[in-house]
Amino acid sequence: MATGYRPEIIQRAFVDFIGSRLHPFWSLTRPKLRLIARQVLNDDLVAVQFEGNHAFKRQAIDSDGGWHAGQYINLTVVIDAIYHQRHYSLVGLPNQSLYLQSDIEDNDNKQSNIITIAIKPQGLVSNYLTQQAPLGIIFDSSLPSGDFTLAQAKLDTQSANRLPSTPSSLLFIAGGSGITPMLGLITQALAQNHTVTLLYYSRMPLAKIPFLEHWQQLKDSYPNFTYHFINTEDPDSYLASTRHLSAESLLALNLPLVDTQIFVCGSQALLAGLYDAVQAITSLDMDSLKDKRSLHDNLIFERFGSLSHELAINGNSHNTDNEKDDIATQTVYLRGRQRQFNTNTTLLIGAEQAGITLSYGCRQGICQLCRCNKASGVVKNIETGKISSDGYESIQTCINIAMTDVVLDI
User: Fold this and answer.
1) Within its chain, how far is the Cα of 209 from the centroid?
2) d(CA 88, CA 119)
3) SS3 labels along the chain
4) Residue 270: pLDDT above 70?
5) Rounded Cα gap, residues 171 and 189, in angstroms
6) pTM (2 decimals)?
7) Among 5-9, 90-94, 350-354, whose mean pLDDT is lowest?
8) Which of 20-29, 56-65, 246-255 has the lowest mean pLDDT?
9) What is the pLDDT of residues 124-160, one digit of tens each?
């Protein structure tokens, strides 16, 4: 009976094995990136550029036209024979002209295969990529992924008096290195005729803002694009005379907030400040909010810098009922090490605060390197809100908090 199965005469795994012996960059199936250039953007950010191999180009670019604005890649970096995995936001879109690419190659085919990330030089892996890794070194990479994209925005009609074809209002809020995914997102949004506002908080003066040349070019090309750069050290740049993000600074933008999708990527302080500002605005009796819909529904957070994760690190969280959930301190016992610690934050951070080192990778619930077995006790996943059973199961320490005393098989 015919099954439709056709065995490969020469298996791709075998070809990859032989190819990797001839040249480590060659592969039919494994996406790899080769470091080709660095460029200092300012004191906080360094642009790092890679060339994708055939597998990366075929799977990430040629198959569906490229990645989506706002997505990220997962790099595997080997330092002193130890494997580390980190996620970095992609800057721009495939085939998008960036001034930092023009010095590398003007050929369109070459430029479309350039992958750019912007890194804040801090930590073991970031310092290695921005300062120590030799040009030409090759890294294993994931394909671009992530849901911090325009597809997550409710770009259809959101009020009774708006036609579905009317362009939506979009607000992009970033702080520090959170500016990196915004360039591609904003470029794509403007191409779709949306009204776009960028609000960026930084300690840097205007002249050192990352991608300043591009923001100015977009401003000149699109009358529906507005940006506000807030230097937290310069009172003349403040909105509504407030140094940090607040309800007053959001209202000063004069946007139809109830009909505005808000993308945000930045530090835990920025995320918490936005949440509190939106909560305060929602509670006001304003004409723009007569339908009483919560502005929280309009917030879209970077996947690996989510609000729930950041607030849990601080030991508290917010909810839509404007209540504060106090997380009680619980005891976590590591059965294999015969050690214990008390914590009211994530299991990983609680252990580190007690001077105990646990395995981890991305620290954001994505790479699975922190996964371990829970022998007993109840934990809560701060990304999904799911409460575990009291029995034996596999959990991730970086995104779970203890709801009762917990025993881990570590």
Assistant:
1) 19
2) 8
3) CCCCCCCCCCCHHHHHHHHHHHCCCCCCCCCEEEEEEEEECCCCCEEEEEEECHHHHHHHHHCCCCCCCCCEEEEEEEECCEEEEEEEEECCCCCCCCHHHHCCCCCHHHHCCEEEEEECCCCHHHHHHHHHCCCCCEEEECCCECCCCHHHCCCCCCCCCCCCCCCCEEEEEEEHHHHCCHHHHHHHHHHCCCEEEEEEEECCCHHHCCCHHHHHHHHHHCCCEEEEEEECCCHHHCECCECCCCHHHHHCCCCCHHHEEEEEECCHHHHHHHHHHHHHHHCCCCHHHCCCCCHHHHEEECHHHCHHHHHHHCCEEECCCCCEEECCCEEEEECCCCEEEEECCEHHHHHHHCCCCCCCCCCCCCCCCCEEEEEECCEEECCCCCECCCCCEEEECCCEEECCCEEECC
4) yes
5) 11
6) 0.70
7) 5-9
8) 20-29
9) 889 999 999 999 999 999 889 888 888 887 654 344 3
pLDDT tens-digit profile of 374-400? 999 999 888 776 888 888 999 999 889
